[in-house]
């Protein structure tokens, strides 16, 4: 049986209100409880290491959680494996794992302290995510979907991520309207881009998804 939706007035209402304002589906009660735990863990670790410059609860929910949940809801169906390329504090990989439990998520993060946080988050939230505590480029296999958000040297990262996508599968990028052309180009001509999903509350931020040509194309 599916978890009941969080009712108005409960502790989960704030996130679901933000999701509703963004035109997104609400999360279930059990899932929202895990987002609460994730938020608490982030704030605790942020007092010791610089996980993210955004530190207050409402901003974490409105920027990190809502954007990541939008990714989970916008990604195509039929994805079995996903790589979060340069996961950082776990965005968008951990929210995708929470909202799309049918997807096996790998979180690639080369910074040791952030990788340690990801290990603790996966343990605390009882997720089946895999942690790759090295550069994503060193992974020796491909995925149904590779996703990038706020990665250093984005153009180089997109080119590397494109190589990790299985033929006929998906590359997803969170970017801005202004950066879109220079972000799409490094993926190469193998990729066919869908119409971007525009994130609510911003006239610039987009989720862009592209399908990679199959070997027979």
List keywords for this structure.
217 residues; alpha/beta; 7 helices; globular
Describe the structure.
The protein has 217 residues and is of the alpha/beta class. It contains 7 helices and 8 strands. Strands 1, 2, 3, 4, 5, 6, 7 and 8 form an 8-stranded mixed sheet that branches. Helix 1 crosses helix 3 (57-74) and helix 3 (57-74) packs across helix 4. The longest helix is centred in the first third of the chain and has 18 residues, at 29-46. It is globular, with a radius of gyration of 17 Å. The N and C termini lie far apart (42 Å). The model is unreliable at 1-13 (pLDDT under 50).
SSE diagram, text form:
Elements: H1 13-21, H2 29-46, H3 57-74, E1 81-85, H4 93-99, E2 104-108, H5 112-124, E3 130-132, E4 143-149, H6 154-163, E5 165-176, H7 180-184, E6 191-193, E7 197-198, E8 205-212
Parallel strand pairs: 1-2, 1-4, 2-3, 4-5
Antiparallel strand pairs: 5-8, 6-8, 7-8
Helix pairs in contact: 1-3, 3-4
Rounded radius of gyration (Å): 17 Å
As a percent range, the share of helical residues equals 25-40%
Order of helices and strands: HHHEHEHEEHEHEEE
Distance between the terminal alpha carbons, to the nearest Å? 42 Å
What would a concise description of this structure say?
The chain is of the alpha/beta class.
